[in-house]
Automatic annotation (TrEMBL):
This is Glutamine synthetase III. Residues 158-591 form the GS catalytic domain. It comes from the Bacteria. Pfam families: Gln-synt_C, Gln-synt_C-ter, GSIII_N. Residues 64-153 form the GS beta-grasp domain. SMART domains: Gln-synt_C. InterPro entries: Gln-synt_C, Gln_synt_N, Gln_synth/guanido_kin_cat_dom, Gln_synth_cat_dom, Gln_synth_gly_rich_site, GS_Type-3, GSIII_N. SUPFAM superfamilies: Glutamine synthetase/guanido kinase. Belongs to the glutamine synthetase family.
Length: 696
């Protein structure tokens, strides 16, 4: 980025709409555009023409291979590279990329989780181009975003359901907008902006900690005394290599057409945040997955390790992935923007109430959708939202909603000015939007920010669920309004609907301090679920009400949901298992010998004196008692881990791990943390929290 303008290369590695406009014959471009709007299917000659243009474009930029880039249920991304090369006449290599290769790929799906959806005799899986998300080039490979399905068409990935949920919400939101008869629109897009938090640590130190390498978090480590007070020390200025890292991350993301803004975050030592501009939900999820990958690779290049785990360090703030979400019509109206005109405000209220109803009807599912095992260590601790889902509308809006709930705004005649006082919200200053950072789900002026979401996961599930549940609410509302002839009647009925929803669901509204223990008591009184462990939320995905809702919205069928519950449960078991095995291994091979060395060190010192020294005696006694305790906790964990075999099925095993093994891990950790405090630096085998924080 020397003499050139830093943004000169923006989007050069993206086969964007502009590129398509330029390099495709206009009728082909038009057909693609129609296909992205789902108004018509893409025909073969069009696909061939796009594939050809894509290949030429990619090869000019040095690409030699292409891949169908997809998002299996592991939560990360997968790709299988094929080169463009094919044998031509006379032993000459030619390049070829057909419309068929662009649209459809076929491969062995058996290495990806399917939760029983893919019968063993049918190991193939198929990938299909998502023509709404642009192809891009990374490391000389043309990456084509695709969905991934089984032979029978069941979805095996996280993209297909997201596209379906986007379609569902578009359809229902469009119905409502058009009922207000302002101007007919065709689509409503769920727009998403994802803020990604992450930690950076020195790579050499990272490699010395097998827990970080294998599990993404430190399984032990004691907080340096006063470390949070020393924050200023850690954050004097951005260290040069972090600065260089961030510049390269931005540069690469800009080339991929991602509007990234990296910023230094002062919340916790070594923690940072990157947030690109919001965009259509499916593209936002794709971009976030790319961002996570770029962060990891660039960090590695700069002698750093990027930690995307929700809670790499106990006692220090965790990392989230704030999911900012709004609904925008094809003519650019944000449906969550309180407008200046009365009818817009009734419409705004209707959308807000649909969201209130959706969130209060499916809080367990949202809690699940925001989480993974790692988020269990973040939620409810050190400046992170609690595990109770609630909505913060901000005090001003809450007053308005409360008036509607109590029927204080009966509008007999919508033309009467006093009625507008509430209905048009004109006295609600728009920028009083919430700065309440303690809420898991907050209205922030013209969007909702879901802050419970953990940093390590794909944001796909979060948005699939958000889109689907809100679509379902909107559908019910649209059904009630359908057929009403006069616009004034629509408005009046809309307010009735809002009142009904608020009377039923106002318990979900809370604009106070979400971190306080008072709120947890209050939430319990209100009957809001407080699901402390992620595992306990997983089965909400296949509850009867969820199955029925997803079926109505045509997003998942029962088999697909049950498969997902199975996969998530198994994934939970694997995560815990890796942690336990890693902790036991580190304990036995390094912590124990370190402690023994320390005991010997003091024993030798005592022996060399020739008379009893009370300090040495006390020290030895303390170390030996730690040794006993360590021995006990170590074997306790080991035994409990072995006992899991007694449980026959996936969920029973997982529950056992959750209630018995995870607490045993915590117990062993607490002894190890005491050992770390007790032994000399020379003898301690691992970089400590302090070492890692200061190294940056
Ligand atoms: P914060 O105050 O939490 O840092 P910002 O205003 O910086 O929030 O925005 C955070 C994210 O929200 C960004 O990715 C931004 O693009 C996105 N965002 C802004 N407006 C919208 C919207 N209408 N819909 C969805 N996301 C949005
Ligand atoms: Mg935020």
């Amino acid at each position: 980025m020397t003499n050139k303008h830093p943004f000169d290369d923006f989007g050069i590695n993206l086969f964007s709409e502009n590129v398509m406009k330029e390099c495709l014959p206009h009728p082909v471009y038009q057909k693609w555009k129609t296909a992205t709007r789902k108004e018509d299917a893409l025909d073969r000659p069009t696909a061939d023409a796009i594939a050809h243009a894509m290949k030429i474009w990619a090869m000019e930029k040095g690409a030699t291979h292409f891949t169908h880039w997809f998002q299996p249920l592991t939560g990360s991304t997968a790709e299988k590279h094929d080169s463009f090369i094919e044998p031509g006449d006379h032993n000459q290599a030619i390049s070829r990329f057909s419309g068929k290769s662009l649209i459809k790929g076929e491969g062995d799906a058996s290495s990806f989780p399917s939760g029983g959806l893919r019968a063993t005799f049918e190991a193939r899986g198929y990938t299909y181009w998502d023509c709404t998300s642009p192809a891009f080039i990374r490391d000389n490979v043309l990456c084509i975003p695709t969905i991934f399905v089984s032979y029978n068409g069941e979805t095996l990935d996280k993209k297909a359901p997201l596209l379906k949920s986007a379609e569902a919400i578009s359809k229902q939101a469009t119905r409502i907008v058009n009922l207000f008869k302002d101007k007919d629109i065709k689509h409503v897009n769920a727009m998403v902006g994802l803020e990604q938090e992450y930690f950076l640590v020195d790579k050499e130190m990272y490699l010395k900690r097998k827990d970080l390498v294998h599990t993404g978090r430190t399984l032990f480590g004691s907080m340096p005394p006063k470390s949070m007070d020393l924050r200023g020390h850690y954050f004097g200025s951005i260290p040069a290599r972090v600065q260089a890292f961030m510049e390269e991350v931005d540069e690469e993301l800009w080339k991929l057409g991602i509007y990234a803004k990296t910023e230094h975050n002062e919340v916790a030592p070594c923690q940072f945040e990157i947030a690109p501009l919001f965009i259509d939900a499916n593209v936002a999820v794709d971009q976030n997955l790319i961002i996570m990958d770029v962060l990891k690779k660039k960090a590695d290049k700069h002698g750093l390790a990027c930690l995307l785990h929700e809670k790499p360090f106990q006692g220090v703030n965790g990392s989230g992935k704030h999911n900012n979400w709004s609904l925008v019509t094809d003519d650019g109206q944000n449906l969550l923007e309180p407008g200046d005109r009365p009818h817009e405000n009734i419409r705004f209220l209707l959308f807000v109430c649909a969201i209130i109803e959706a969130v209060d009807t499916y809080p367990e599912m949202l809690r699940m959708a925001a989480s993974s095992y790692g988020n269990d260590y973040r939620l409810g601790a050190d400046e992170a939202p609690p595990a109770v889902v609630s909505i913060c509308m901000g005090e001003d809006l809450e007053i308005v909603l409360e008036k509607i709930r109590l029927g204080e705004n009966e509008i007999d005649d919508v033309v009467e000015p006093k009625a507008y006082a509430i209905a048009n919200l004109s006295y609600v200053p728009k920028d009083t939007s919430d700065r309440n950072r303690t809420s898991p789900f907050a209205f922030t002026g013209n969007k909702f920010e879901f802050r419970m979401v953990g940093s390590s996961r794909s944001a796909s599930t979060t948005n699939i669920i958000l889109n689907s549940i809100v679509a379902d609410s909107l559908c019910k509302i649209a059904d009630k309004l359908q057929g009403i002839k006069y616009i004034d009647e629509v408005r009046k009925k809309s307010l009735d609907i809002c009142r009904d929803i608020l009377q039923k669901h106002h318990r979900i509204l809370f604009s106070g301090d979400g971190y306080s223990s008072d709120w947890l008591d209050e939430a319990e009184k209100r009957g809001l679920p407080n699901i402390k462990c992620y595992l306990d939320s997983i089965s909400s995905l296949s509850s009867e009400k969820a199955v029925a809702m997803f079926d109505r919205m045509k997003v998942y069928n029962r088999a697909e949901l049950e498969a997902r519950v199975d996969i998530l449960t198994e994934e939970y078991r694997k995560s815990v298992k890796v942690e336990v095995l890693t902790l036991l291994d580190m304990s036995k091979k390094e912590i124990l010998p370190a402690l023994v060395r320390e005991i010997k060190f003091y024993s030798d010192a005592q022996n060399s004196l020739g008379f009893e020294n009370s300090y040495y005696q006390r020290k030895i006694k303390h170390l030996v008692s730690l040794l006993d305790n360590f021995d006990k906790q170590y074997h306790d964990l080991k035994q409990k881990m072995e006992n899991r075999q007694q449980y026959p099925d996936n969920m029973a095993k997982a529950q056992y791990l959750n209630t018995v093994v995870v607490p045993a891990m915590t117990d062993l950790r607490s002894v190890i943390d005491q050992i770390e405090d007790a032994i000399s630096s020379d003898n301690y085998p691992y970089p400590t929290y302090d070492d890692m924080f200061v190294s940056m």
